[in-house]
Design goal:
Layout: H1 12-43, E1 47-51, E2 59-65, E3 71-77, H2 86-93, E4 101-105, E5 110-114, E6 117-121, H3 127-141, H4 154-168, H5 178-194, E7 199-201, E8 210-212, E9 218-220, E10 226-228, H6 230-238, H7 242-246, H8 251-266, H9 270-290, H10 294-306
Antiparallel strand pairs: 1-2, 2-3, 3-5, 4-5, 6-8, 7-10, 8-9
């Protein structure tokens, strides 16, 4: 690629999220991000089309094209224990149910990905159709693993999440939810101790992380891979469109109905699904509080209470 280096502006959403959750380390990462992205554009001979805004909450995402003019996506993400093995999961799936990985520098969290239709997430479909497509895609992603792999176990993920929940529960806005937090923590530990399945899980599967594609109707993006039982993965999907769910007449019945439909569709134990949904909802609520997203936090706490 020739000429002056492209101007790369970090989206406000990414700046706010990383600063709120990562503090000074996050600010240092953000300061170096434009130069890092520009360096990989040059190294891979990519031409920048535009940076997606808002893009990701932990990553800069840009539309680019390669030297043969084929479209692609450059993703420069913050490395965390949850995101560090994204490239390995995409490599293992090899495009089956997920976006295709074209190149990567895993040590820097930089990925070159196939271009999907970012403006058409699964969330754009009516909920019944979206859930049908989502469960079909999850069935393809849940694969068994070879003997050796780099992915964390569900027990490890739960332990790390529980530590964060314990730290974040001190937020003043969570004062009235302490009994709910205790229940979620106890439930998760019990489920982690009794889990028997061992599948590769997406880790953050919801309608916003599934995009329309050319070589398949829908493909998953942004995995936070973990190895464990399917109910954990399905629980995140069960929490999707929480505002719609909580706006239904008879919320507890609506929640039970969704859990039953999802567990039945994928042959997952409904009570384990409910327990993981409780834990993940509380975690999402406290993460939202830490990022100063009060409305999202209240939504997830209300949903957790209905579980």
């Amino acid at each position: 690629m020739s000429g002056a280096a492209p101007t790369i502006t970090v989206p406000t959403w990414l700046t706010d999220t990383v600063t709120a959750t990562q503090g000074e380390a996050g600010r240092q990462w953000l300061a170096a991000l434009p130069a890092r992205a520009a360096a990989h554009l040059a190294a891979w001979d990519l031409t920048l089309e535009r940076v997606l805004d808002p893009g990701g909450s932990l990553s800069l995402v840009a539309y680019v094209h390669r030297d043969d003019l084929s479209p692609a996506v450059l993703k420069a993400g913050l490395l965390t224990p949850e995101t560090a093995h994204e490239h390995a999961a995409l490599t293992h799936w090899a495009g089956r149910g997920a976006v295709l990985l074209l190149d990567a520098v895993p040590s820097e969290g930089v990925l070159l990905l196939e271009r999907l239709h970012g403006e058409i997430p699964l969330r754009s479909l009516a909920e019944p159709k979206a859930m049908l497509e989502a469960t079909s895609l999850l069935h393809r992603l849940w694969v068994e693993l070879p003997g050796e792999h780099p992915f964390p176990t569900l027990a490890q993920r739960v332990a790390a999440t529980a530590d964060r929940v314990v730290e974040q529960r001190a937020h003043p806005a969570a004062a009235e939810a302490q009994a709910l937090v205790d229940e979620a923590l106890e439930t998760a530990r019990s489920l982690a101790d009794s889990a028997e399945e061992s599948f590769l899980l997406h880790g953050d599967f919801h309608h916003g992380n599934v995009l329309a594609a050319d070589r398949a109707p829908w493909l998953a993006i942004d995995p936070r891979p973990v190895v464990g039982e399917r109910a954990y993965d399905l629980a995140r999907l069960a929490l999707d469109r929480a505002d719609t769910l909580l706006g239904s007449p008879g919320v507890p019945a609506a929640v039970r109905r969704r859990l039953h439909q999802l567990s039945d569709a994928l042959d997952v134990d409904q009570e384990r699904l409910r327990g993981w949904a409780l834990f993940r909802s509380v975690d999402l609520a406290l993460r939202s509080l830490a990022a100063d997203r009060r409305e999202d936090a209240e939504l997830h706490l209300e949903l957790a209470g209905s579980l």
